[in-house]
Specification:
Blueprint: H1 21-34, E1 38-39, H2 42-47, E2 51-52, H3 53-57, E3 59-62, E4 65-68, H4 74-81, E5 85-88, H5 96-109, E6 120-123, H6 162-172, H7 178-192, H8 196-200, H9 203-206, H10 210-213
Parallel strand pairs: 1-2, 5-6
Antiparallel strand pairs: 3-4
Length: 214
Amino acid sequence: MDDLKILPQIFLSVTILELPNEQYQALTTIFMYMGRADAPTGVVAQNIGGKTIHSELHIVFTGGGFQTHALTDRELKSHLQKVDTIIIDEISIVSAELLDFVSNLFANLHENSIAFSGINVIVVGDLAQLPPITSQYVFCATVWTLFYPLFLRTSQCQNNDLQFYALLEEVRTSNISNNTWQMLQQKHSQFLIRPIIDIMLNTTHIVGFRENAQ
């Protein structure tokens, strides 16, 4: 069970390949037996080998709220009725309204009133990161209290650079010390004097997705 605690509040999914071997194997097992993951944005979805919530469930947003073709499209409905586990990454970006809508959708697909129709749901993310653009925070969802939280207490990505880890923790909690502020300003100054070609030709501009880089 300890190996499964890779679904934390401060873990970034795009660094999956940098995980210790036992945790990488645990995550691979989850994907193998529980299916592919859903994520709120296209870049995140491609980086974890999943699909966005909207594309997988054929959800569209109108002035009156969320709608889906899942209840009228026979092929899609049959596909979703076979789902036994949902994994949602970057949960902080998902709105309370969307999470409740997904829960109600699966209840309607199975013609019952149970949250998510009783199937397994794993949500992953850091609630101190990006919130929904305009809607309520995900923890305001009616179904949020049904989740059992697991927290990663030890850094897995920056465990060899404790200074950088401390910096990130201060930034995510909006409690930036003078030393951290000076370090950020120094990095910014170094960035400004770099040749323009170095700024343009970086990994973000050359390849936007991990799988393309491979």
